[in-house]
Structures are given as C-alpha cells and as structure tokens.
Design goal:
Length: 383
Amino acid sequence: MNKFKCIILHNVISPYKTLLFNTLEQVMDGNFKVLYLAETEGIREWKVDKDELRFPFDVIFEGKIENINPVTIAIETYRRLNFYNPKVVIIVGYSYLACWAAFVWAKKNKRKVIAVIESHYLDRPRFRIKESIKKLFVSNCDAALVDGTRHRDYVVSLGLKPEKIFIKKGSGPIDVSFYQKEISRFKSNKIEICNRLDIPCKNFLYIGRFSTEKNIILLLRAYKRLKDEGAVDWGLLLVGNGPQRKEIDDFISRNNIKGILLPGFKQKEEIPLFYAISNIFILPSISEPWGLVAGEAMACGLPVFISNRCGCYPDIVHDGINGFSFDPFKEEELLGLMKDVIQEKYNLEAMGRASLGIIKDYTPEKVTEVYKDSIHFVEGIND
C-alpha cells in the first residue's frame, strides 16, 4: 500500500505555493506530500517559515539549492520516491536534474506523471536543441498543469495533446480576502501615509525583483519624461530589491528625478500598504513567465498596465477593461498610457473593480480543483 497517493516535487519552499498546498491538504486529507529539493535559493529574499506549512512535506536538503550538487539532489530524489512509492508524481518544471530523475523513476515504475509548466514561448529566447529535450520530457507525461492560455499553447507545441492540459490559473493562487482585508486598513489614511513618506498622493507602482528582465529602466525613462512635462502630482513607488538596485539608484540620481520612493524588499504582510496608496500597477517586464504580482494588485482593486510579454496577458489583463498591455520595447507606448492616466482619460475606479472581479477566479480553492481534476484524469488512464 502506498503511503502517499501523490508526491509533488518542488524546487524550494515559496509562500505563494504554500497557500495552494495548504488548501490542497484540506481536500486531499493528507493523501499527498510535497517533496522540496531544498529550503530556498539565493535570489529569493522571502522568509521561510515552516510553521505555515500545514501539509505533509519533506525537505531533501537544507539551505540554498544552488549550493548543493545537482547530481546529489537527483540521486536523493530518486531514493525518496522509491521510499514513498506514490501512484502519481507531479513534477514542477524540467530545469533541474532532479526533475528528470523523478521522470525516470515514474516511467520505470509505471507511475503517472503530471508536469507543471510555468513558462511560455515568449518569456525567453528559444533554442532548437533545448526545445527538443523539453519535448522529450513533456510529450511523455500523462498530463500537464499550466499557468494560462499562452502556457497551454506552448505545451501543445512540445507535443502534449490539448485534452491532457489543465490550466491552473497562474503561477500561484491569489489570497484575495487577505489583500482586501489588509488594504482596507490603510485606504482611509492614504493622504496621511503619503505625507509621512514624503510622496505624492497619486502613484504609479512597481513591485518585484530589481533585475534587467523586469525592464525598470524603461519605466523610469517614461516617468522622467512625465515629470519633465510637469506631472508634479504623481509619484512612482518601486518596491523590491535585486542586482540592478545600484543602476536604478544611479539613474534616478543622475537624472534628478523627484517623487520616487524605494522602500526596499518587503514581505507579504508589508506589501498591502503600498497597494493601498497607489493608483496604477505597472509591470514592464521583457521576460515574465506569469506575473503573480499583477494578480495581487488586482486583488487590491488596482488597474494594471502590463507588458504584452507577461504570461498573465491576456488571461487576467483585458485591454480597456481592467488595464492595458504595451510593448516593453517601446517606451512611447507606456508613456502614452501614463499620460492618459494623468489626463484622467480612464475611469480608474471602474477598472479597479473589474480587476477584482476577474481575479476572484484565481483563489486557492479554484486552483485546488484544477489540481484534483488533473490527478483524477491520470488515474483514469489505462496503460
């Protein structure tokens, strides 16, 4: 008898997946286990609190995943699967050697494999040899869980039939009730908070990693032009940190741009304040597998301006309804949208309400149902 019907193989502990797995535990009654390759990774600053993990889990190696030999992780992954002997293995991605070890184990032992694919064709350059290797992996899975429609189309191109693909609504579910509750604490004090932070009371907002693929310099160039044209009533909040922080600081200083706040990296419980004092969320990435933070902004009732390279477009961003998309390589497109906001050409409150209406389908409960459906599907496949 198998100790766990399903093993979910994941790289590291992450808050947005914890929300999903906690909900999955409630409906699967402990009949699954999450097997983490490592505790965390170097590029992440979020806190790891294992007390928040209310589901069965196992961490193969403590510390950062990049500090551990990939072969060692792969061997231990294979050994753990032998021990747990699940009927279904859900493998998150294919970029780690351990993912391939799990794939080989499942095939050797005639177990079902569900691949979780969180990339799409536009999120990075594609090379024929690498795509052929991915196709070998994906096309031989029994099903796939993907973030959205772009990801589904990409997985079809890798050889998996459409009927085997389940759209799980994003890279992670959105805790809509949490964000709605938290921003209500700050909304009535918006002017006071902005005065205390010495920023305008109308603000554009970016939250995320400070790295080149996020395209923050383009956002800064567009904002600078707005300020040069007299947009004194609007500020820009850049919440986060990363390897590009110094370049961003230098650009702001060199160009003497006013009205910008850089509060640094913030944990989940600290983020709602910044949503509450903002009017528009902007995600200008040139590479973005999904864009979870856009969904969080929508849960806070914000309109969103989003790069058309982001994986969540057009699933959650509907042009003219709850925001707009733009070409991240064309500064004029983003500048035009920002000018339109300043000139009050859009009903931002109505767009914010539309955002909230759309993102209500992206809750942990909804995503859990998709996971369950995929598991039931592969269990019904005869070899």
